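Researcher: Sequence recovery benchmark, item below. Answer with residues only.
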């Protein structure tokens, strides 16, 4: 399933480039009663975790990760079919959670959401995604202008941080935990792309250069044998030489994992030279979002 999700991202962003993928799995036509019960129980639990300021998260963590966990809770409540306009406990919880996310202290002057709660780019992307989903749904008309301003700044952070100088040129096009990180990984990159895609649907313009650079990074993490995505860019799978003498399970240097011509995953990516382009770009308000 995870591979299909990544392939779907590739298809969505490929444009005119030829990317061939297998058919994606089709979701079940109806949600079972047990699933409905589980979703209902999960929603009720989230409501019990909301604190006095509207944040939803683990009370044991205090303010740590509160912006990120509140954003995830907002996405979960929306996905469960609830809206902030409802006069229900869920609707009230959503309104309070959204008000918390829109507080001035959640986002810094550059547009970054990951500093206030120490949630890094993971928290930033999730919050950006939540704001863009709210814009698309049009469920907060009185906050629409504020949502768009904050989402635009947040999306600019994502776009501009993609240009951070990388120690390994193979990491170009991806993202990691900090806006100006000098490396990349697939997990953080995947979430940034989800946020950018939601931003596009809300009216934000993503340039072809951003698309192509991200697509190249995603393709660089995919290996056709044995058809997997790697957490980061690693050397391609290398089969053992066919003329190598067979290894004895009892001889010196034997390994429990050794065997015939089976491929082995290479060591973690080696550090390459600095990427072209010089110093990382400073954040700028280059993006735009039009009214819905």
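Model:
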């Amino acid at each position: 399933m995870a591979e299909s999700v990544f392939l779907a991202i590739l298809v969505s962003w490929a444009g005119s480039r030829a990317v061939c993928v297998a058919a994606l799995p089709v979701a079940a036509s109806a949600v079972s009663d047990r699933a409905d019960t589980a979703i209902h129980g999960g929603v009720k639990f989230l409501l019990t975790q909301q604190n006095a300021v509207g944040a939803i998260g683990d009370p044991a963590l205090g303010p740590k990760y509160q912006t990120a966990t509140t954003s995830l809770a907002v996405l979960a409540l929306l996905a469960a079919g609830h809206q902030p306009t409802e006069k229900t406990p869920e609707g009230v919880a959503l309104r309070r959670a959204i008000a918390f996310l829109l507080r001035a202290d959640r986002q810094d002057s550059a547009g970054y959401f990951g500093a206030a709660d120490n949630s890094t780019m993971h928290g930033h992307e999730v919050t950006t995604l939540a704001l863009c989903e709210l814009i698309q749904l049009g469920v907060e008309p009185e906050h629409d202008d504020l949502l768009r301003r904050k989402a635009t700044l947040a999306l600019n952070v994502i776009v501009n941080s993609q240009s951070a100088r990388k120690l390994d040129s193979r990491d170009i096009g991806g993202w990691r935990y900090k806006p100006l990180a000098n490396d990349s990984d697939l997990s953080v990159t995947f979430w940034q792309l989800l946020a950018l895609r939601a931003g596009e649907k809300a009216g934000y313009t993503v340039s072809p250069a951003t698309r192509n650079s991200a697509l190249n990074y995603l393709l660089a993490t995919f290996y056709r044998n044995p058809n997997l995505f790697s957490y980061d860019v690693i050397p391609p799978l290398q089969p053992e030489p066919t003329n190598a003498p067979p290894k004895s399970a009892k001889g010196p240097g034997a390994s429990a994992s050794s065997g015939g011509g089976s491929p082995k995953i290479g060591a973690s990516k080696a550090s390459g030279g600095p990427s072209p382009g010089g110093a990382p770009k400073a954040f700028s308000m280059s993006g735009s979002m039009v009214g819905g």
